[in-house]
Amino acid sequence: MFIGRQNELKLLNQLYESNSFECLILYGRRRIGKTFLLDEFAKKTNSLYFQAQESTDQYNLSLFSQKVLSKFPGPSYLKEFSNWHDCFQYLYENLQKEPCVLMIDEFPYLAYQNSSTLSLWQEFIDHSLRKTKTLLILCGSSISFMESEVLGYQSPLFGRRTAQLKLEELTFFDAQPFYSNFCYEDQIKLYCTLGGTPYYLSMIKSDESADDNIKRLFFSNYGYMYNEMGMLLKQELREPAVYNRVIQAIACGKTKMNEICDYVNESSSKVSKYLSNLIQLQIIEKHLPFGESEGKSRKGVYQLYDLGFRFYYRFVFQKQASINTGLGDNVYDQDVKPFLSDYLGYGFEKICIQYLVKENLKGNLPIQFTRIGNWWGNNPKEKKEEEIDIMADDNMNLIIGECKYKNEKVEFSILQQQIERSKLFPKYKNYHYFIFSKSGFDFDIHTVDKAFHCITLEELCK
Fold first, then answer.
1. Which of 18, 155, 374, 436 has the fewest CB atoms within 10 Å around its CB?
2. Phi–psi pair at 220, nearest 5 degrees
3. Averaged over 289-304, what is the pLDDT?
4. What average pLDDT does this structure show over 216-239?
């Protein structure tokens, strides 16, 4: 079953129907759904799909030759091509006849084994493909390679793309078909433990409880998620042991550079390199207070962007010894489940931001904001540090949001608290307040001032 990615499919179809040559650079981290997207797109198009292997250049040429000759049969004596130039020439002669999608998956594997690969494809595009109605899709999982060696200005392929698409994780709402049979609280629990990676979400079994799904995937040494994070780090990075420590530090609440350095016992220059690589892989992100910019603010903190990594390194990584001896269920019941409600608050906040972004695109909010985030800083009146879960603005108007993932209903006093917080930002003309509550409100939300929008769990998730 194909879930989500409707905007991405729409882009692919637009490129295919342009009646001219197009080159799309498609990339994103492993398991994010690139190949699945290409498979779905290929069902309704005239296409040739090739997945490069982590092998020799000659082996990949042989495999590609077989794909080309299967799609465009030639003389019976022609079994494969001896070089890429001859293969490209034969392919060009056939691509002139009708529009076609040429998909090259795991493109970096070709370049790793042949230093001329990028130049060969540049020549193929410039002298042949541009004369056809081909949609060329170069796809890769190595984000650093795709951004520097394919999209970078020093790349031979620089300037050849007509579009690029970095595939992101699914939002809670796009991913809902994976867990639609569960109650809303369990939907949030599953999303906040597995994250928005489609492959992980596809392993949810609707005939098991949310807790049993989590136990099966994370708290058994046979579970898919038990070794997944470590394997991904080994595939993408050198020194995975140090990266494990960096991620674990952030998962345990060490979010500032000096705190992370102390935790891993490494210099700031070295840790900075590790953090940069993890940001590029979309495992962590550097977070700034709303309205502040990189380079000017010293308040940046590091957070785990990927909710699956966040859950694994918060609860699983340090309990591997117990899990390996078959005590995974006990670990979950005693060391995870009692603390899960508090832990889910961060993911709930992320889902609330996704909700506002979704509604903003539909024009359903009192303003159409141009930026959104969180804010933290000094409250000079109260002489204390203040945190605001959500802020969004259009320069003249401000949205302030509060996210409460608690078992208690939100009290009426929180409305006045939001008004007081808005006074920290006096430049705005109008203020709107969104309050999200897991357990509802202890007052009639239909009688409050129209500036307040009280969102129940049902309204959020429906």
1. 18
2. -130, 140
3. 86
4. 91
Question: What's CA 461's distance to the chain center, in Å?
Answer: 20
| Residues 185 and 311 reside in one and the same domain | yes
Tell me how far apart the alpha carbons of residues 44 and 61 are, in angstroms, rounded to a whole number: 27
Domain region containing 85 = 6-166
pLDDT digits (tens, 9 = 90+) for 154-163: 999 999 999 9
Closest by Cα among 144, 151, 202, 147 to 178: 202
Amino acid at 140: G
- pLDDT at residue 322 tops 80: yes
Number of domains the chain is built from: 3
| CA dist., res. 421 & res. 460, Å (int) | 24
- CATH number of the domain where residue 387 is located: 3.40.1350.10
**Is 318 part of a structural domain of the chain?**
yes
Residue from 65, 322, 28 nearest 197 by CA? 28
Indicate if 206 and 96 belong to the same structural domain.
no
Contacts of 421 (CB under 8 A, 6+ apart): 386, 388, 400
Whether 180 and 159 share a structural domain: no
292 and 407 co-located in one domain: no
Evaluate whether residue 380 is within a structural domain.
yes
Calpha distance 166→242 (Å, rounded): 27
CA–CA separation, 298 and 278 (whole Å): 20
Q: Residue 422 is encoded by which pair of tokens?
A: 């808005």
Model confidence at 357: pLDDT above 80: yes
